[in-house]
## 1
Amino acid sequence: MTRAQALDGARHAFDDGRFEALLAQGVAYATESQNPAQAPVLQAYLDEFLQPRLESLGFTCRRLDNPVPGGHAFMLAERREPGAAFTLLSYGHGDVVRGQAGQWRDGLDPWQLTVRGDRWYGRGTADNKGQHCINLVALEQVLAARQGRLGYDLLLLVEMGEETGSPGLREVCREHARALRADLFLASDGPRVAAERPTLFLGSRGGVNFDLRVQLRPGAYHSGNWGGLLSNPGIRLAHAIASLVDARGRITARALVPKELPANVRAALRGIEVGGGADDPEIDAGWGEPGLSPTERVIGWNSLEVLAFKTGNPDAPVNAIPGQAHANCQIRYVVGSDSDRFLEHIRAHLDAHGFSDVEVLPNGPRMEATRLDPDNAWVRLALGSIERSTGKAPALLPNLGGTLPNDIFARDLGLPTLWVPHSYPASAQHAPDEHLLGSVAREALQAMAGLFWDLGEAEARAALG
């Protein structure tokens, strides 16, 4: 049996409706992790939907309890082969955001797969049920073509709480580090750079959320009697923020940006364009770090955003100087940033600019930035494999602009990390009308079949060093 037969099998699994039937079955589970009442459904997705499928492919499955109170259990599926050259760890999540039933176009049911042309509607089709189902069907075709052997061991970790921040994922990976010991991480989540272009990304930007607060008085005072005499917390906070980031989005507190954009990262991003899709917003020319392309600004650099700003009562303003103001802010950052000291740097910057009255408060955990070296041998293998399967040169993103829990796999488990996404930017992920493109799914099935096949070849053993 040959590689070409594995790819043919992947195409046939799409064309004859087997993949559609599998995805329809998975979408029917209303796995809303934000809804405590759906906890039995989340467990059923693992026990009833995934486990039988995985066992038919030679995996043994076991439950890993979540040490975080209220957290959902994990599933670890293991497929071991005598004489395996190395171990591959994969990952997926079966939970979804709320279905938002009643808000979908034309009365579409979020828990029923509906195919209309190239768009396959249903909650989880893009994030993440469709993506890990593509990988499972592709794997099935490779095993059939190789007569039940891969040439490497394969582990799959599935969680049911990613949409609520992956509670317990880090703890489970640390507790079961020996069972999760591997040589390479490969998974699928997030979007391609464009629907028609296969994509490989190697990590993600990190994220730090923080609050800025100005609390001057316990209450408000009439602006006619006190205007011009009392400092206004909204004005103070606006100027404090303006000292951190200028009117064109450039971060002026330079301790909050990396020292450089590495040459191999810049080279990887050359020729990749962001935006331009039918449903994408128009990129604002001249916004962000000067001297960088739009792709470099969102993939290779840091941004500081104001997510919310409140002073007084915006819904019912009165003629009074408010006593306090509050802003929720966020830094998206890349590898090479001094993220451990971000809040310390902000504090020092505000003090130096006369804003000692502005408090700096952490807001939630920090998500770490990760980025595998684009020159890594596993990266070269994956790029070559995807191009050979699809006939297209894939886009290489050193990291996503968004944030995934990749630091757990890259740092805690010490693995080189490869992500091959099967969604696209306009998928309506997390919104009504979420959908997967059938054309992307068909191509992704072939790309993943080729990649699972090539990982069993001699080139993969050479990549081990």
## 2
Amino acid sequence: MSRDCSDPYDGNILVSPLGEIPSNETALKVLTYRPGRPEEIELIPRHVRLHHLMKIRDLHIPSMTERQLLQSVDSMVREGYRVRDPRRAETWTSIGGERRQAIDIPGALGAAVEGLSGVGKTQACLRSLMSFPSQVIRHATFPKMVGQHLQVVWLSVEVPASGRSSDFARALMAAWDEATGSKRFASWLQRDKITDGMRALEEWRQVANSHFLGVLHLDEVQNLFKLSALKQRKARQGSGSSPEISVVEDKLLCWLLQLTNSGRIPLLVSGTPDGIGALKKRLSTLQRINTCGYHALEPFRDPKAPMFSQLFLAQLGLAGAAGTSDWRVAVQGAGSTCCL
């Protein structure tokens, strides 16, 4: 069989089920959702039309930042699979627990999403992750293995409010069993309390590595830190001193670094400006978590701002009036805020 030189992943069995690499146009199309208009709306009683109106909450027009995020996530997953190609002996050596790693294999990629509470960080990340054809892929055959094998493309977990390794491990295990439909971690989850969080995290990491987890998304990363109260932070800003930052568990943060370094599992983190700032400062991980992009989601701050009133709102009204099925045409020219 001849080699396809146009394929940067050379037939990697982990990458093939992910479909084509998304172009700018494809990324925007995947992220866009426009609820359908009810037929003969003028014949629907007003009190019923009000309920149809609630569907407008489902409307989603992606920003340029979201499009870039989707492509960053896609690159993270594919590149992570390139360096963990199951046809390579080094891949199975790493999964087997041996620390020896080829010099030409870099650590995993990372990306960060920052924004104020309610700006849509979680939804932006989930929409990007769900752009893949499937979260879990079942292979009938697999290199260097007999029988079927399960590949988990992505997993999304919210960092527990406690910020402790035991609660974090429980969240990871519960998310894993829910995504795969298995009871792999049932013995852990049946316990009233996980007393050894780090041992539980190590077991989870081994399972995630052996099933080739494509990317781990950690939401609300600010919960890893003990951030001072808002009033105290503002007082320090006025005095010119740095805000107080303390970590809940140092070992947990070290484990996350090992996950990307030796585990080579790409990491996507999302959180408030305080949380992302603390993560970068506390661990000096600016380069690690930004290797595949730093994405800041900004809300519309003023209804009279041209970006909102002249672009987004005007084009939104045009699309509604036209009733067009091609949302890209309806919002053409909406710039970076509405970039279809």
